Amino acid sequence: MLDLKAGVADRGAERVPGREAPPLIVEGLSHSFGKREALRSVSFKLDRGDRTMLLGLNGAGKTTLFSLITRLYNHRSGSIRIFGWKIKENPSEALARLGVVFQLPTLDLELSVAQNLYYHAALHGLPRREAGVRLRREIERVGLTERLREHARTLSGGQRRRVEIARALVHQPRLLLLDEPTVGLDVASRQFLLDHVRMLCREEGIAALWATHLIDEVDSAARVIVLHQGRILAEGPVPEVIRRANASSMREAFDKLTGERGE
Amino acid sequence: MKAVHYYRCMRGIVWREALRFLNQRGRFLAALVRPLVWLLIFATGFRFVLGVSIIPPYQTYIPYQVYIAPGLIGMIIMFQGMQSSLSMVWDRETGSMRTLLVSPLPRWYLLASKLIAAVIVSVLQAYVFLGIAYFWGVHPPRLGYLTVLPALILAGMMLSALGLFLSSVIRQLENFAGVMNFVIFPMFFASSALYPLWTVQQANERLYQICMANPFTHAVELIRFALYEKFNLEAFAVVAGSLIVFMVLAVMGYDPGRGLIARRGGGE
Prior knowledge:
The complex is a heterodimer.
Chain A: E1 24-33, E2 36-46, E3 51-55, H1 62-69, E4 77-82, E5 85-86, H2 91-96, E6 98-101, H3 113-123, H4 128-141, H5 157-169, E7 175-179, H6 187-204, E8 207-212, E9 223-228, E10 231-237, H7 238-244, H8 250-258
Parallel strand pairs in A: 3-8, 3-9, 6-7, 7-8
Antiparallel strand pairs in A: 1-2, 1-4, 4-5, 9-10
Chain B: H1 3-23, H2 25-45, H3 64-94, H4 96-101, H5 107-134, H6 144-169, H7 173-189, H8 197-203, H9 205-213, H10 215-227, H11 233-254, H12 259-264
Helix pairs in contact in B: 1-5, 2-3, 2-5, 3-5, 3-6, 3-7, 3-10, 5-6, 5-11, 6-10, 6-11, 8-9, 10-11
């Protein structure tokens, strides 16, 4: 097993909230629903610009982890810090710095693309004019400027996802969470999302946590966290995780680590 | 988060609710047709069957359609309140509830904003209904149109809070349809909306007590009195008290540390 503690070195500076603090620190996080343990003492850290793939089979605990980080419900043990702000003690400060793309589509299909984005900006307390500038920038980056006035219903699945990414960035978070964002998308849309997030991490220093059960989404330039039955089995840069598992590919490493055949 | 953030957030939630409502014209029509059917057909048919004696706030004998108008306004508000909460169950199933809950303002505030948005929509509907009812012989005093406003808002908040609470406990839409039957219809019929309660009391004392314990009865009476420029303290107290109780229950239901979502890990 890997030395996880080394990844979450307990330096004082990391605990001071602010832009210099690491985007995400999860420490000793456990959660259970009744008797079923969904997460067991999960610890990891994301640094600025990190693109981390959270790899696990269905039911590994990815969605539970995301629900806790987004505070859909409270965690009872361990801690979650977003730029140093504890999600339990300062939920507003923490959530304001977080952008999320959920697994389920969450656009309001009754509204236009622009209205969806304005609504999101309002939830984050942005003034309308500033929201307009920012959402135009984000929607342009995903190549959908000409669809702004159209009903979300008229967009394809891939386009809706692109709008959701744009929406997650309207309030300029420095930490982006994506919960299996490519499920149900065609190859081109999937590639677009992967490239877009890669660009965001590389050029803007945004930290991204991307949950997936598709091993081929994990490229060698990313970091990976292998989550299995609520536990972290491996964490680190992809080549390092492969090497430590004595494997030749991520797929082989995953199979060896989990003792199962992956997808 | 400063006060201006709170203001912008609420404005955004109200604006979205209004847009959704306007985009769904069918919903607007349905919401109006229902009480109008009662007013234009039911009330006419029952005009001579149900004798309405002089009871406060009325100072003279009144035709039946005048009696049931406040009850039908109550119906509009109740349906709207339930419909908004239905949309919240829908939101939760489709996931768009999560975009709301993951935003930085406190959860109770987000729910309160939702509630106010629902109330604004239902108050608008109530006035459209009153406008049409005018041509059917419902002529409250002119000032009554103004004095009824606070009553509409308070009753709307109470019934929407009930809907919010229900939406936090109910997991699926299929269950929700059942609850509509078990909540809306009994509340509507076991109230003073369609008949003065003294007629109920003469027929069945127990049913009368049930009607008196029904917050919807008091919502209707609050509206009825306010429409005739009068204030009904008892109705006000019951409606305000129910509002607080339902709102506390709703906030508990959506609390990240308690409530259904936390216990069952909703959302997936």
